[in-house]
Structure formats: C-alpha cells, structure tokens
Amino acid sequence: MARPLRLEFPGALYHLTARGDRQEPIFLDDGDRRRFLDLLGKEIVQQGWVCYAYCLMRNHYHLLIETPQANLVGGMRRFNGVYTQAFNRKRKKPGHVFQGRYKSILVDRENYLMELCRYIVLNPVRAKLVKGPEHWNWSSYGATAGIVRAPIWLAVEEVLGLFSGRRANYRRFVMEGIGEESIWADLRGQIYLGDEKFLERMQELAEGKPVQEVAKAQRRPKTPGADEIVNAVAREYGIAASQVLDRSHAEAYWLAVYLMRRAGNLSLQEVARRVGVSIARISQIQTKIESGKASKKVDKLIRKYKIKD
Predict the structure, then answer these.
(1) What are phi and psi of 71, to 5 degrees?
(2) Whole-model pTM?
(3) The pLDDT value given to residue 306
(4) At what angle do helices 72-91 and 30-47 cross, to 10 degrees?
C-alpha cells in the first residue's frame, strides 16, 4: 500500500498525530511527557514552526503546527526519532515506540484553524478521562486559557487573536465544542481538511505549481546561513572569521557550531562536514552549550537569534 503524500510548502498548516506501536503507550510517566514537550519545544524553535495547540494522550499525541518554511518532514523525522531514543534509553531497551510514520493532515486555515484549536484540547474530555479540558495537564488548553504559564514556543497570542484577544472568548468556544460532531467528516483523501477550493489548491501544489495565497513574509522567512553565523561570532569575539572554526578559540568555535544547528537549522551531518569533526562531537558541543552556564557573549548571540531552551 502506497504511503500518503507528504506535501510541504511555506505557510502550510498541519494536524499531526502519531500512535504507539501496537497501540502501546508512548508515555509511561510524567517524566516522559515532560521530555516530549522539551524536545518538541526545541524542534519548534529550531524549525521556526508555529504551534497553535497540542495534546498528549496515553498512546498518541496531537499537534497543530504551521510551517513558515517547507520543512515539516525533516523536523518531524528528527523529533520522533530523538524522542524514541530517549524513551528507549530510559528503559534500556531497543525497538519502535511509534506505529510507523506520523500522520499529517493539511488544514484549510480559514475554515478549520479555530475548530482544530478546540478539537485537540478536547481529546481527553471525549475520551472521558476528565470532565473539562482544564483538568488535563498535558494539553495547551491551560496555557492558552491563562491557567498555567505558557511555554515560549506555544503561539498563545496568535490563538487568542482569533478570539479578539480575550481568553474568556477562547474558553467559551472550547466548552461549546463538548459533545459536538467530529470535524473529520470533511476530511478528503485522508490528508486534506478543507472545502473543494482548498482541495484544488493542494492538488495544484502537489503537481508542482506555484504557491498561491501565502503571504510573502511567510514564503521567505529569515534563516541565517553558516557564513553569516561565523561572521557574527567573529565580530562578537573580536577575531577573524577564519579563526572561529580553526578551534583556536574554544568558546567561539562551540558557539558557531551550536548556532549552525539551532539558528541555521543545518543537519548534524552538514555541520560536521563544514567544521571537520564527527557527528558525535557536534552533539557533544550542542549539549555543552545548552547545559553549561553561558557567558555574556554566548547569551547575547543566543538572544540575537531568538533561541530559547
């Protein structure tokens, strides 16, 4: 059986879900859930995604993600893979955590963005795990409703903007959705949620025609290149650009490597090839920067590129 099409384009909106292998749990304790959200946040920041809503269930998850760049597949492959490694490492066992690939549904923003913001956080209520979404700790409802502090990677203001900026309107809208019919009756071809016009646009994109009706700012987001990063680090440390990657200044070298990964969104392989070390060494440097106490120069450039752990 052929795999469903993975259609990527700037400004796309996706409902994403993945289930446990053989319907088994993908979260066995709150530590797993916290680790999942930590990894998700890092991937969202690194890829430049916009996360409107999420919900972690026992054996699956739901995400509502917008991709200003056409970079869903690579980011999701890495995210699910890293979580699988962490899950298995904790239990000292190999094997699959997820049942095959994640499922992605392209969403008609105009007609379904609000509906999916509601649908996703009501999953625990529909499953009769809680009476109201405010009682489920592992969805975006609490943060968006103002009950708990929101992670920096969650697009709370963007969601509230759909409700005139008022949390009361958001809360009312979500509660009104309890008991309503499923939105999936409008799903087309198993991968599109939208009307006929939306389906036609998606089919044109699948055939390689130009992206239409996507804002110019969304089509061309700013991602710094490797050379720009090296030059920025060189200026900050008062050294020549050639000295940044020759390892004569350890902190400048570590920072450039880190920013290529997190701000430039280069793969481990790309960074390793560019600086002439192993992939394992790149991972070690990234961990060192993230776990150590940052100097003022490191902190300044991390803020410049809007990287937050």
Answers:
(1) -135, 30
(2) 0.75
(3) 61
(4) 150
